[in-house]
Amino acid sequence: MSEIKLFSIKNDVKQLIPSEVLLEKELQNLIEDNMEKFFGVRFLKSEYVITNGRMDSIGIDENNCPVIVEYKRSNNENIINQGLFYLDWLF
C-alpha cells in the first residue's frame, strides 16, 4: 500500500519525508486546514463523536455526501474494520 505524499509549499515546493510529520495530529491539522484545496471537500468537524467511537475528520463533498478522513501510521485489518463500521453508521 502506498503512502500519501505530503509537500511543503513555503518558498519552494518540497516533498516531505514521512518522518518529518511526527504526529498524526500534525497531519490531521494540515488536512483539515486545506481539505477544500486538497480534495474539494468542505471541512465540517474534527473528532466527530458517533455511537461507540469518533471520526478524526468529517467533511461534505460537492454532492453533499459525507467524507470521512482517518489518520493512521499503520496499515492493518483494524483500519478496514473501522471504515466498515463508519459506513454502517452512515447508512
List the SSEs and their pairings.
Layout: E1 7-8, E2 14-15, H1 24-33, H2 35-39, E3 42-50, E4 53-60, E5 66-69, H3 77-90
Antiparallel strand pairs: 1-2, 3-4, 4-5
Summarize model confidence as the mean pLDDT. Answer: 83
How many β strands by DSSP?
Answer: 5
Cα-based radius of gyration, to the nearest Å: 14 Å
Quaternary form: single chain
The percent of residues in helical segments reads 25-40%
The helix tally amounts to 3
Series of secondary-structure elements, N-terminal to C-terminal? EEHHEEEH
Describe what this molecule looks like in 3D:
There is one protein chain. The protein is α+β, with helices and mostly antiparallel strands and 91 residues long. Helix content is 32%, strand content 27%. The protein contains three helices and five strands; from the N terminus they run E-E-H-H-E-E-E-H. The chain has helices spanning 24-33, 35-39, 77-90; strands at 7-8, 14-15, 42-50, 53-60, 66-69. Strands 3-4-5 form a three-stranded antiparallel sheet. A hairpin with a 5-residue loop joins strand 4 and strand 5 (66-69). The chain is globular, with a radius of gyration of 14 Å. It starts with 6 loop residues before the first strand and ends with a helix. The relative contact order is 0.13. The model has no long low-confidence stretch (mean pLDDT 83).
State the gist of this model.
The chain has helices at 24-33, 35-39, 77-90; strands spanning 7-8, 14-15, 42-50, 53-60, 66-69. The protein has 91 residues and is an alpha+beta fold.
